[in-house]
């Protein structure tokens, strides 16, 4: 299985997936911490992958997504964005709306 196959499998298997540094309970950077906290606040279950545990996936995901930084939030396999975008969506109410729509599917 290639790294791209692994990424596709993860995205296909998880409706809401956060690629982050660390875990939601023990984030390893401020942006990952902020994003995980917002997702917890919305109250919809989400999956995560600690990109610090797989250096090859960490590098290839940047190419796959064409997004250079972490965290990266995906909903239904689609890249939503990083911390700044997630925070804007949270403040506008759009994030909660999208996450709850996915959770109710």
From TrEMBL:
Coiled-coil stretches: none
Gene3D superfamilies with a match to the protein in the record: Glutaredoxin (3.40.30.10)
Positions of the Glutaredoxin domain: 16-80
Molecular-function annotations in GO: 2 iron, 2 sulfur cluster binding; disulfide oxidoreductase activity; metal ion binding
Keywords from the named record: 2Fe-2S, Iron, Iron-sulfur, Metal-binding, Redox-active center
SUPFAM superfamilies: Thioredoxin-like
Record-annotated membrane-spanning stretches: none
InterPro entries registered for this protein in UniProt: Glutaredoxin, GRX_PICOT-like, Monothiol_GRX, Monothiol_GRX-rel, Thioredoxin-like_sf
Binding site for [2Fe-2S] cluster: 29
Pfam families assigned: Glutaredoxin (PF00462)
NCBIfam families listed in its UniProt record: Grx4 family monothiol glutaredoxin
Family: Belongs to the glutaredoxin family. Monothiol subfamily.
Protein name, as recorded: Glutaredoxin
Naturally occurring in which organism (per UniProt): Natronospira elongata
